[in-house]
Amino acid sequence: MTRLHTRPAACVLVLGFAIIATQPAAAEFDQAHATFAGVLTEYVRDARVDYTALKAHPQDLHRYLDQVTAVSKSEFKKWNEPQQIAFLSNAYNAYTLRLIIDHYPVKSIKDIGGLLTGPWDQPVVKLFGETITLNIVEHKILRKDYSEPRIHFALVCAAKGCPPLRSEAYVAGRLDAQLDDQAKQFLANPSKNRVEAGERVVYLSPIFKWYGGDFEKKSGSVLAALEPYWPEKSAAALAKGNFKIRYTEYDWSLNDQTRK
Fold this sequence. Notes:
Blueprint: H1 9-22, H2 34-43, E1 44-45, E2 48-49, H3 51-56, H4 59-69, H5 73-77, H6 81-103, E3 125-127, E4 130-132, H7 134-145, H8 151-154, H9 175-187, E5 194-196, E6 201-204, H10 207-210, H11 212-219, H12 222-226, H13 232-238, E7 244-247
Parallel strand pairs: 6-7
Antiparallel strand pairs: 1-2, 3-4, 5-6
Helix pairs in contact: 2-4, 4-6, 6-7
């Protein structure tokens, strides 16, 4: 009778522990977002993007999005709120950049997609093991899960009418200051937002019409939400009260360095 040679159970157990012990631990996500910060520093100037150069050298952008994709939902839930908002805002902006260079040259982000599925409904975002859209990131995650209307100053849809794209990534430790600075920069641009004291009219970006409810929910009204961020002269005029709101035209042309 042939005897089967079997490995003792204890040996199998020890071998199993040895294999587990030698497997590399998953790398923690870089909360400094250094790879994306490098992309923004290299290719963004005065809120305009050098899409030609970025399309030619997309490796660091791809590498950052690989880091984003590797984050699990369970890992994400362990982070504090500023870390989560910074992560989602950077991911939104990074995926928008990749959407543009995947279709570049285009004159506007609205040239991407079809009549029924525009650019924000393209399945281009890989997040938490799913492939979703930019609209889902903005409306079903950021706007739904966080009471932070200033995200509308952070998310940049590759249009000149958007708030400025920073030459740095959002990071949790400076997120509050970065969002305040975004608001101030946006309100200081008279082509998008301005106070006409003689007319008793505040001209606002359509962003405040589209998402006015987010600001009202937090501060009671859009103008109350914007009060801390106006340039000094505009703030002094508004303090006198009784201003009407009108909306400026939204410029959907691409925020491209090569198109002035």
